[in-house]
Structure formats: structure tokens, C-alpha cells
Amino acid sequence: MSADADRLIEVDWGTFDPWRIQAVRHRLMDHPLLQLPSLVELSKRLESRGRVRTHSSDATPGTPFNTAPKLHPNHMTAASTLQQIEQAKAWMSLLNVQTDDTYRTLVDDVLDDVKPGVDRVDPGMCYRGGWIFITSPNTVTPFHFDKEHNFILQVSGRKTIYVWDHRDTVAASEEARDRFHACHERDRLHWDESLRARATVFHLEPGQGAYMPSTSPHMVENGDNASVTISFTYYTHATRRDSLLHAAHERMRGWGMHPPAVGQNALLDFLLHAGFRTAIDSREWLRRSLGKQPYTDGAAYAIAG
Ligand SMILES: [Fe+2]
């Protein structure tokens, strides 16, 4: 771990591999923006912009992640949920907190802190985002994966995070990754209790955290207390390339083709990346020319849907 006492996140940069799960530590437990009164106010601001995701504690590891809020709704407002989080029987995520001027500073402070170490082996940090999870006791985050690299940090309470290697095709098939990158659907991802034995498991206490590479499947179980957790996420040149290749493969599957897994054929990957990147860049150029906001995964901050 870094000996620098000023660092917000401590990472063993000597062994850091952007595609390997690893433990980290942090110093954000007492940060004023991460205490419940501040989070209640943030939740009011974000809820008015549709940037809160919530479901009840009835969700299980196998609940489909994308539809959990509809399958197990939490009918309370975000502020009410957070004000009584110990009894609320709810899971809540404050989404894209970087869209809030106050919290964007926190996102930048933390990601600026790790950027030099990340850049050495994984350049091109962009699409910065922040996500805060406030959860009632004994509540589960269903099995799922995300596109971004992720520093997930425990602020208060305890939880157990199960994480699977991003190359583990038992936890998530190549087809599941292709479809996710193409259209953000996770319906080819299937939970099975036997997966627990294959996971890297973190029993997180305040001050502890983990680094999870892009599309590492994960599932989270709270302890018997309420919990606050924050994730700082980003893309890099490598994650954008990986995502584009998976999306290209999904397109090829739609044409009846059966491409090899991403990474197995360097020449095919090179040609696909060059072709699809050019097409995407052209589309973005056209939107800019028409005065429209381009959707680009190279933006400085995550674009809130
Ligand atoms: Fe996640």
C-alpha cells in the first residue's frame, strides 16, 4: 500500500493490474458529503432529475438487476428512505452524482488521486462517474456487471462483496458480455448459488474497498446494519476498445456469424476496432455538425441517461 498519508485511496500500485480484482483502502469515512444528512439533500436534488434507483429488500441475488426496481418497488421517496434507512427495507443508489456540482468535486478529487497510478498501465481515463449506495440491513444487490472500471469503497456499515473475474465465462458468458456492451441488457447473465465458490470475496468494513475491472460480475450482501458505499468509476482507452469489440461481435452474431471471443484473434480485433471506431467517430462528427450533443464514451464525465 502507498505510504502517502494524504492519499484518499491506498492502492498497491506496484502490483496494480487494471484487469485484476484487488483490495484497496480509503480515507473517506468521515467525509462530510458522505454523511446521511448530506446524502438526504443530495437525494432530493437527484430524484427531481430521475437519478435515483431503488428497490425493496425483497430482491435476491438472482433477481434480474435491470428490472429489480419494477419487480420489487420501494414506494417511499428517496429522502424518506434515507431518513429511516435502518427500517426502510430498501436498496437505493444515487446515480451519476458527478452531475451535481458539489459531488463532482468529490469525484474529481478521488479520481485525480488515483489517475497517475492508473495512467501508468491503463491510460485514457474518461467518463468519470460517482454512485452512492445506501442500503437497509440484510439487503442484497442482485448479481450483475457494469461497463466501467470501479473503485468501490465502504463508508459505513459492513457488507460482503462477491466479485468474479471479468474473463470467467462460467459466471458470465462471452455472449452475455457481447449483448451487454451492445445494448446494456443483462438478460444473458444468470445467477446460480454455485457461483459463490468461484468468487473473490471481500468482507468490507468502513475504510476498506475493492477495485473491480470493467464487466467483473458482482453481487453484494449487506450485514445486519445499514450501509453507505460509494463507487468511483471511469473508462479508459482499453475499456472503450473492449466494449466496442464486444458490441461489434454482437452485431456479427445478428448477421448469423460466430466470432471468436474478444482477445482470441488479434487481427480480427484490430480490423473490427478500426472499422467500427471510424463509423462511430463519423456519427459523432455528424451530430456535432448538426449542433446536437454527441453521445460519446470519450466524454470527460459519464453522461446521465
Ligand atoms: Fe455494479
Low-confidence runs: none
Heteromolecules bound:
fe (ii) ion
Run of helices and strands? EEHEHHEHEEEEHEEEEHH
- For the record, what is the CATH homologous superfamily label of the largest domain? Cupin
Per DSSP E runs of 2 or more residues, the count of β-strands stands at: 12
Q: Examine the coordinates and then state which fold CATH places here, giving the name of the CATH topology of the largest domain.
A: Jelly Rolls
Shape: globular
The helical percent reads: 25-40%
Task: Indicate the mean pLDDT.
Answer: 93
Biggest sheet, strands in spatial order? 1-2-10-7-12-5-4-3
Number of helical stretches of at least 4 residues: 7
Estimated share of beta-strand residues: 15-25%
Organism: Dyella japonica
Protein name: JmjC domain-containing protein
InterPro entries: Cupin_8 (IPR041667), JmjC_dom (IPR003347)
Pfam families: Cupin_8
Report on the architecture of this protein:
The protein is α+β, with helices and mostly antiparallel strands. The protein folds into two domains: 228 residues, Jelly Rolls, CATH 2.60.120.650; 51 residues. 31% of the residues lie in helices and 23% in strands. It is built from seven helices and twelve strands. An eight-stranded antiparallel β-sheet has the order 1-2-10-7-12-5-4-3. The chain has a four-stranded antiparallel β-sheet with strand order 6-11-8-9, with no helix packed on it. The radius of gyration is 19 Å and the shape is globular. The site of fe (ii) ion has 3 residues, from loops.
